[in-house]
Amino acid sequence: MLGWANQFSILCFLDSNEYPSEYGRYECLLAVAGNDTPAATSLPALQALHDKHKDWLFGNIGYEYKNDLHPMLSSRHRRKLGIHKFHFFVPETVCYISKDHTTLTIETLYAQVADVYKAIMSTEVEVSAPMPQVEWTYTTGKDEYLKTVAALQEHIINGDCYEINYCTEGFVPEVNVAPMQIFTRLNQLSPAPFAAYYRLYDLHMTCASPERYLYKKGNHLITQPIKGTIGRDADSAKDNLLKEQLRNDIKERAENIMIVDLMRNDLARCSETNSVRVDELFGIYTFPQVHQMISTISSTLRSDMTFTDALRYSFPMGSMTGAPKIKVMQLIDKYEKSRRELYSGTVGYITPDGDFDFNVVIRSLFYNAATQFLSYHTGGAITADSVPEKEYDEMRLKAWALESVFK
Question: Is there a contact between 379 and 107 (Cβ–Cβ < 8 Å)?
């Protein structure tokens, strides 16, 4: 399916990698479109587009869309990738495999379904070529990183905020790579429940995200923020000890509950009174390189609210900002050395019925095929109890998982 889709200038491929989830609808989901497909570049336009077509919509909301939602915010760094801060498209063809792996569904208005199926099945799967050797440049060295964490802790001590997500960038100014090959390799090394390959003309995202931003089914909303990370061990006994260490870590639990409170507040702005619930607190989930602490919050969307209101009142997701949200986004722009663009934004889909599922864009590589610029961001939450050296090690652990794609 993905090899067949590579001929299109716009595509979105979402892969759950067989991860067990009571909320996931599909094993994988693919949408493709040409250059002249209807598109929306803002939340009001997205609502209008869905109201008009009652069709599937796929796309992204970049982190910088925060400036449209909150006029007091701005971004001082230039765009290097050029990824659209908001773009949703009506697909020409949608394909998806059911969660039980028994059914392939093809929906299209532009061809015969049998012809699309035949074209998919006859696509030659390319043998992967060797990955290019790359030399990473970092916007922030270790000494500066440690000093910045200390400066952010001063803001916390002074009462400006109580948790802030601080990120740095690794990049290669110019390198010739095959984006789909990068995604295939990343998905092999780090299979994740919210993996995505997203192409918008020359701009490509390969994503191995473990985190759900927001899910809607009927009037039911679900968000599952991740806060709390620990590396894994090849020895199963030691690995289980690491899980318990994460589960009982006071600092990690404090991080998690701060974001749970923030997300409860965000959902309350568009939900029925007394409908916001914490369904799971401090759940420990295992992924190829790390264990993560994940909590689940749910609510009931108010009858006078639209599906775009749920996005409006919760974006950007609290796990990638900190709290209080406006203040920490101002500090993020002050202390980080580059624009996040699509990183810590979201990619996902909206069904014809207005249901949706969106990921958090983390553990991702971004590539502009026109300029051959390759980059990623990694980071973590800073609190008063953070140990700068440990924060640096966690950031590098996440970066290693991305850089290892090329090794």
Answer: no
Distance separating alpha carbons of residues 146 and 166, to the nearest angstrom: 11
User: Whole-angstrom Cα distance, residue 39 to residue 30?
Assistant: 17
Note whether 110 and 95 are within 8 A (CB): no
Domain count, the chain: 1
Rounded CA-CA distance 32/90 in Å is 9
State the average pLDDT for the chain.
95
Residue 211 known to be catalytic:
yes
The DSSP element (H or E) to which 334 belongs, if any, is: helix 325-335
- Residue whose token pair is 């979105």: 12
* Residue from 227, 255, 336, 391 carrying the catalytic annotation: 227
- Summarize the confidence of residues 353-357 as an average pLDDT: 97
Task: Read off the pLDDT of each residue in 141-146 and give the average, rounded to a whole number.
Answer: 97
**Average pLDDT, integer, range 146-162:** 97
Give the span between the Cα atoms of 22 and 394, in whole angstroms.
Answer: 29
CA distance 349 to 105: 16
Main-chain dihedrals φ then ψ at residue 346, nearest 5 degrees: -150, 150
**Active-site entry in 163, 211, 252, 341:** 211
> 231: pLDDT confidence band, cut at 50, 70 and 90?
confident
End-to-end CA distance of the chain: 27
Told to judge if 227 belongs to the known catalytic residues of this protein, a careful annotator would answer yes
CATH number at residue 174: 3.60.120.10
Confidence label for 127 from pLDDT (cuts 50, 70 and 90): low
> pTM value?
0.95
Structural domain boundaries enclosing 279: 2-406
